[in-house]
Design brief:
elongated; 76% helix; mainly alpha
């Protein structure tokens, strides 16, 4: 996207080019001694028209690019608002939970949804990426801690370590080195070739969440039988 300052720099650069072109053109005219003042005036008129046309083209291109940038910003804002409404809806469901099991189910489902969203992104700084990572951080440091099992907790830590590496490097991680992990000092790599690291970590966390939900169902079923 072209910022306001960059537009000023481009305009200044165009002005410098025009001045240099005028100086060069003036020197070229001086070499033609047989040119009458009328001929030189006509030449300058042609030069002015050419420069005016070039400036108009540059200004038009800048205006078009800024228009495209504005449209992208508007689209990003709409996407951000839509994604935010989805997250607020999930938070609202959690707030209405009356039992620990209900709250656990909501948070485990949201954790699975969040990591699947993040794992399919190309850019963490996109509207969906910003909202999903922010919500993931809230779950990681707060709400989910109250209910998660050790397996879910371990998967959450690994996924967050991968997010932190992605944010730091700007590149989707393909592995975690010992110094990049929070819960162990061993490297984390995928044994399956041609697999996407983030997607596999998301799958591990979703599997842990599913197993935890199955446990809740078994407990609920046992209580019903009694």
């Amino acid at each position: 996207m072209i910022s306001y300052k960059l537009s000023i720099l481009i305009a200044a650069a165009a002005l410098v080019v025009v001045i240099i072109a005028a100086l060069v053109f003036s020197r070229v005219l001086h070499r033609f001694e047989d040119f009458t003042p009328k001929d030189k005036l006509a030449s300058w008129e042609v030069f002015a028209k050419v420069m005016t046309t070039c400036i108009a083209i540059v200004a038009g291109l800048l205006a078009f690019v800024r228009y495209i940038d504005q449209r992208e910003l508007e689209l990003a804002a709409r996407n951000y608002e839509a994604a935010q409404k989805v997250r607020e809806f999930n938070i609202g469901i959690y707030a209405q939970s009356k039992t620990t099991d209900q709250a656990t189910r909501v948070l485990l489902n949201e954790a699975s949804d969040l990591v699947s969203t993040i794992a399919t992104l190309d850019d963490l700084e996109s509207p969906a990426g910003i909202i999903a990572t922010d919500r993931f951080e809230r779950l990681y440091h707060g709400q989910l801690v109250l209910y998660e099992s050790p397996s879910v907790s371990a998967a959450m830590i690994d996924f967050r370590d991968a997010i932190l590496k992605w944010q730091k490097t700007g590149i989707r991680p393909t592995r975690l080195l010992p110094e990049e992990r929070s819960n162990t000092k061993k490297s984390l790599e995928l044994s399956k070739l041609n697999s996407d690291f983030m997607r596999q970590l998301a799958l591990r966390l979703s599997t842990a969440c599913r197993n935890e939900l199955d446990t809740l169902d078994e407990v609920a079923g046992g209580n019903t039988e009694k």
